[in-house]
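Archive transcription. Copying these from loose printouts into the bound notebook so they stop getting lost. Printout 1 of 2:
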Amino acid sequence: MVAKQVIFEGRVQGVGFRYTVKDLSRGFEVCGWVKNLTDGSVELQVMGVKEEVESFIKEIAEESSVAHHIKNLTAVKIPLLENCAGFRIER
């Protein structure tokens, strides 16, 4: 198991980004959450088997309907998420 925090920058708010990420999560064995940040970026915290997490992030960044809105992304490994079940949009 691995957990990652990803910060997406660009025109990632107001374009359905979080809802797209939540929908995409259904196709992967991952858990976590996604939320808007006050600086206009979007934060994703996701946990799962390394290959699933990496494939999920790649799908968002390269193949999703919102990929073209991403100008930059920063991914870092973080401690495993506690009580992680399902995938949700944080407010």
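Printout 2 of 2:
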Amino acid sequence: MPCASASLAVWSAAWLACAAAADDVLDALAPWSEAHDVVAADAATAAVTDLPTPDRAGAGLAALLVLARQRSVPTGPDARLVMPVAGDVRGLPGPAELRTAAMAAGECAVLAGPALAAVPAPVADGVLRWTVHLVDDVPPSAHPSLPDAEHDLRSSVRDAADTLAAMDVAKPRAGVREEIADSLRRRPRPTWPTGTPGRPLRVLQHADEVEAILVAASGDEPGGAVSASAALARTDALRPLATAVRAARVAAVAETVRALTAA
């Protein structure tokens, strides 16, 4: 899925750069959930941030924005999207508790200037909880530039299609186009700050489309027509494409943050 952490990273960077109002940030997170709350990861973090601990009712998103402003540094806003998976935690700082939570969620917004990271997870129907961690030194992002990520995504689509065709597991099934279109319609439609460049928006849209195709391609025929070995080979063939989707999203968010905070 396109992720809420991308919206938080971009809009919080715009807020810290005085390129967006607080209400704009709150409105931009609305497509992801009817309600959001914010808690500290543990008692030590709560003592530093004044956020409630996870066993208490969460604060509003505005509390996270105020905290980020209070802890921001003169070097300027620096926010990033991290989408860690097993074997790939590029750009994700410590502590270990943050790494574990971000891996479980598959996403995280890192606010390097304020030395904070927020991991989203649904906790009730219509409620998305952001758990805030204090971070150690933020490592450099090792993801490709936006042009390279866009090229890799397109190349990965072609390579996956060729591999699946060679394995004879790429036969179209009835209704797959409708399935993909429905998947795209049901996704949240995030908004982006004024001044967001067109190229990262195009890459984000392409990543959404490719991911919808990935989900459809990973599904089995009714009745389990694909053998276990063929299903495993298909998963292996699609894995580089999933990696390219993540890298494209991370690069698009990084370029958007750079453009919005350059002034």
